[in-house]
Amino acid sequence: MKALKGLIIAIVMVLVATTSFAADSATLNMTATVQGTCSFAAASTLLDFGTIDPTAGTDATASTSIDYTCTNGVVYTLTLPAAGSITDGTDTIGVNIAYADGGGGSGSGVPATIVIDGTIPAANFATVGAGVYNGFVTLDVSP
């Protein structure tokens, strides 16, 4: 009986020793979608004409800039009205607006700057009342 027990133990040990374990592998697939987008660095910028003198007879001018970024390779369009107005609640002054960007291009993924120039012709404010005048126009950048 001892011999049989020893033989069984020997057979089990041989089976365990010769049993192999296999490793396996799998592929981890990954994905992401880069969105073609454009955005401004700030929600607004100020075109400040400062204090203007209606008796001077000269146009008032101002300049400002704002940064924007578009995804690399994305074709974008910049739009800004050529004119706007500012008001004190009673009187309104017309403002001419220009920018030299060309209206669009292809994004590079790094910030770009658009310079915006404003002109108020002297005739537009020669007869308005004194006060603080405010207004806004919307600048858009879109892919």
Q: How large is the count of helical segments?
A: 2
Q: Give the beta-strand count.
A: 8
Low-confidence stretches: none
First-last Cα distance = 87 Å
Helix and strand string, N-terminal first? HEEEEEEEHE
Shape: rod-shaped
Strands side by side in the biggest sheet: 1-2-7-5-4
Helix/strand structural class: alpha+beta
Radius of gyration: 36 Å
Major pleated sheet: 5 strands, antiparallel
Residue-averaged pLDDT:
90
How much β-strand is present in the residues? Answer: 25-35%
Q: In percent, how helical is the residue content?
A: 10-25%
Topology diagram in text:
Elements lengths: L1 H17 L19 E3 L19 E11 L4 E5 L3 E5 L4 E8 L4 E3 L5 E9 L1 H4 L14 E3 L1
Highlighted features:
143 residues, alpha+beta, five-stranded antiparallel β-sheet, 2 helices, single chain
Kindly describe this structure:
The protein has 143 residues and is of the alpha+beta class. The protein has a domain at 38-48 and 58-125. 15% of the residues lie in helices and 33% in strands. The chain is built from two helices and eight strands. The strands form two sheets. The protein has a five-stranded antiparallel beta sheet. A three-stranded antiparallel beta sheet has the order 6-3-8, with no helix packed on it. Strand 4 (83-87) and strand 5 (92-99) form a beta hairpin.
